[in-house]
Amino acid sequence: MTAVARTLNVARSHINEQRGTTVTPRGPYRKAKDAGFLPAIRGIVDARPTYGYRRVTALLNRELRLQGKPTVNAKRVLRIMQHHGLTLERHTASRPGRTHDGIVIALRSNIRWCSDHLEIHARNREVVRILFVLDACDREVITWSAVANAGISGEMVRDLMVTAVERRFGTTKIPHAVEWLSDNGSATIARDTADMARALGLTLLFTPVRSPQSNSMSEAFVKTLKRDYARVAILTDASTILALLPDWIEDYCEVHPHSGLKFRSPREFIRLSA
Predict the structure, then answer these.
(1) What is the dihedral of CA 257, 258, 261, 266, to 10 degrees?
(2) What is the DSSP string of the chain?
(3) Can you tell me the distance from the alpha carbon of 220 to that of 142, in angstroms, rounded to the nearest whole number?
């Protein structure tokens, strides 16, 4: 034993102590107060089944702060959700890479606005097309419009521009240039649309062909609206979709936590930045 201790350069007493110690495998780690968080976590998951543990943590901590209680760590929420089978399945699909050109995120509000449109299909094969514009800093959907079983027209785009400027600046002439980032759709590149943008003080920017990442803010909103709202609703026809849209977008702006905003909602971020 002495020779072994000298070879390993450790004390002989330490080796004797380790020989007499039985190593017990560590089981699942839990805390006594975990059960107190479970009902609130389960309620959030039941209401928002597409949310991962980070957004669940953000909503849970929002409730705890309102009650004047200490917040909880995201890893603890993940552990509780894993123990009770409340986590999402891992996403394993791979997607082909595409070129990302240009800067999308803005450091301040009302510097760059991102516009795009999406389609939501009902069970009876009717389709609703939604046109929207959001801020590249605070992510709030400034304004939007929707039409059933019809295409996006240039008039809709121009009305969207006027409404967005009025809601953010209270006037039809903005005090400084604001970039309007969108795709190359015919309604957006029309001459009348360019004239309207110029009159309002908007600078039109267009994404490269086959590069949706160049308008990643809009793409993220499209993905969120379909995944967290449309996917978990029963959409029988276009009228149902049109009736649900106002509540969806209001919830997205007021409640939905965004990772890019430190898991605050857009309007929560705006209020804290004011």
Answers:
(1) -70
(2) -HHHHHHHTS-HHHHHHHHTPPPPPP-----TTHHHHHHHHHHHHHH-TT--HHHHHHHHHHHHHHTT-----HHHHHHHHHHTT-SPPPP----------S----SSTTSEEEEEEEEEE-TTS-EEEEEEEEETTT--EEEEEEEESSPPPHHHHHHHHHHHHHHHHSSSS-SS-EEEEE---HHHHSHHHHHHHHHHTEEEEEPPTT-GGGGHHHHHHHHHHIIIIITTS---SHHHHHHHHHHHHHHHHHT--BGGGTSB-HHHHHHHH-
(3) 15
User: pTM of the full predicted structure?
Assistant: 0.79
- Residue 97 is predicted with a pLDDT of 44
Q: Does residue 25 have a pLDDT over 70? A: no
For the chain, the residue count is 274
